[in-house]
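Re: that backbone. Tokens:
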């Protein structure tokens, strides 16, 4: 059996997926440009699994660098996490996002084609449901975006659909993540964003550990039970296990298949704060602030397709996600 190449494998979701793959006995190769993660993740993955693997510090825009990986390793499938993913930053730097995410992904696909590797699990996002659909989101809904980051996911899904139509040997599962949070129960790996976190839970974690002063809650006048935004938070380990199921599915099927990875349940910002306060046994200092541009009131998944096609469903609840996030934060107060 050949190896699995994980692009972006030292990142939050990538590192957790590497652990699950190694624990399942897969042979992996990790490629990352370390622009938004640290080599320390490689050491933590090896420590956690007691397994070693090849790491290549290679950028998706380095065509020859990726060819070298395929020259030196027989790659059966690719799990493609690598990409820039900050919504706000993408509005400021659209060309950087389109170049990195789209040109980079086209490069990767051209290399895969050259080496006859035609199985891909793509890291997509609930963001592709845009603002014109109503939750619970189903995979047959039209996709759109409200920012360059979201458009890169929409466009890459279209590129993958077109590739599968042009060459029926290709098998692509596009996993649409909802809101991944939490950490491996060891506390050795977790969410470790560079700079001030954009996302809710890492921000709460840094308030709880004392790195940030207070949480700003963006809007409490949404049409939701408590007025704050509702999202489908999913434990990153559940998400990682979903990739293993998708890998097996992709090997036995052809064509393009979008699949939601969520819990099917929504939690409000205030509910997440309350859960985190239980986990860390502290009060989180917070204030209500104006709505954040581009935010939806409510977003959560219909998860029937993942159950039907992958025999996968999320197992952890919001309290467990917050306990595991806090455990990682306490063990890594300044990040990795
Ligand atoms: C969640 C809720 C905020 C921060 C984004 C991307 C999505 C995916 C996940 C990459 C919202 C509120 C947040 C804060 C707050 N990323 N919030 N104060 O916006 O649902 O999704 O991250 O794939 O593509 O769009 O996640 O964690 O930023 O926000 O009140 O300091 O928390 O308004 O209601 P989001 P989030």
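Recovered sequence:
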């Amino acid at each position: 059996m050949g190896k699995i190449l994980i692009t972006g494998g030292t990142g939050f979701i990538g590192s957790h997926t590497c652990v699950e793959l190694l624990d399942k006995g897969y042979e992996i190769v990790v490629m990352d440009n370390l622009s938004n993660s640290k080599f320390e993740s490689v050491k933590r993955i090896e420590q956690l699994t007691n397994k070693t693997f090849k790491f290549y510090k290679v950028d998706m825009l380095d065509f020859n660098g990726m060819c070298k990986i395929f020259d030196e390793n027989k790659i059966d499938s690719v799990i493609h996490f690598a990409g820039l993913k900050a919504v706000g930053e993408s509005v400021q730097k659209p060309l950087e996002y389109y170049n990195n995410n789209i040109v980079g992904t086209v490069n990767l696909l051209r290399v895969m084609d050259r080496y006859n590797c035609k199985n891909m699990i793509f890291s997509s996002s609930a963001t592709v449901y845009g603002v014109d659909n109503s939750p619970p989101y189903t995979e047959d809904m039209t996709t759109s975006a409200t920012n360059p980051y979201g458009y890169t996911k929409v466009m890459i899904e279209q590129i993958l659909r077109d590739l599968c139509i042009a060459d029926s040997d290709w098998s692509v599962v596009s996993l649409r993540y909802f809101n991944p949070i939490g950490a491996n129960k060891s506390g050795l790996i977790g969410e470790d964003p560079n700079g001030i976190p954009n996302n809710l839970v890492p921000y709460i974690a840094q308030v709880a550990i004392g790195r940030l002063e207070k949480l700003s809650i963006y809007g409490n006048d949404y049409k939701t039970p408590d007025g704050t935004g509702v999202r489908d938070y999913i434990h990153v380990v559940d998400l990682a296990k979903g990739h293993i199921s998708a890998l097996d599915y992709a090997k036995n099927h052809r064509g393009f298949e979008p699949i939601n990875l969520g819990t099917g349940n929504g939690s409000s910002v205030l509910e997440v704060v309350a859960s985190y306060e239980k986990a860390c046994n502290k009060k989180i200092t917070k204030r209500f602030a104006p709505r954040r541009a581009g935010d939806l009131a409510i977003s959560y998944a219909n998860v029937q397709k993942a159950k039907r096609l992958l025999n996968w469903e999320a197992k952890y609840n919001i309290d467990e996600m917050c306990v595991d996030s806090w455990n990682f934060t306490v063990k890594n107060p300044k990040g990795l």
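The chain has a mean pLDDT of 97. The two ends are 33 Å apart (CA to CA).
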